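SAMPLE LOG
Freezer: B-3
Tube label: C17
Construct: single chain, 157 aa
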Amino acid sequence: FGKKVKVGNNVIIKSFSHLESCKIENKVEVGPFARIRPQTILKEGSKVGNFVEIKKSILGKKSKVNHLSYIGDSYIGKTVNIGAGTITCNYDGIKKSKTIIKDNVFVGSNSSLVAPVSLAENSVIGAGSVITKNVKKKSLALTRAKQIEVKNYKRKK
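STRUCTURE (predicted):
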């Protein structure tokens, strides 16, 4: 651990995880290969899996970020599932902005949440979406381009 790490009871921290200036509440599971950066709070029963980085964020009770994700400058409510490969796009080149995800939200794999953005309670984000606008309560939001297939395509050599 780095400095100023507070760890609750019944916490599992798996191999090669790095924690600094953060708070880990009871019954939390971290790692392996997770990075928990300063000003992060992992609430009771939450789970941060392999190759996940969390910075200056709160992960709510029983919420999960299981694999290959970056969460920065975010508030994530209770019982939220963040799909593999999801990132919060918190920096626009000038300033950092916040992502707010309310309770019971499901975010599909490989989604990009472009801050500032808010996902209301019980909303669902379709896999592969780039979310740039706020999502209302009990809504499904997805962004997809039409797949194009060029038959008999030959690559230039």
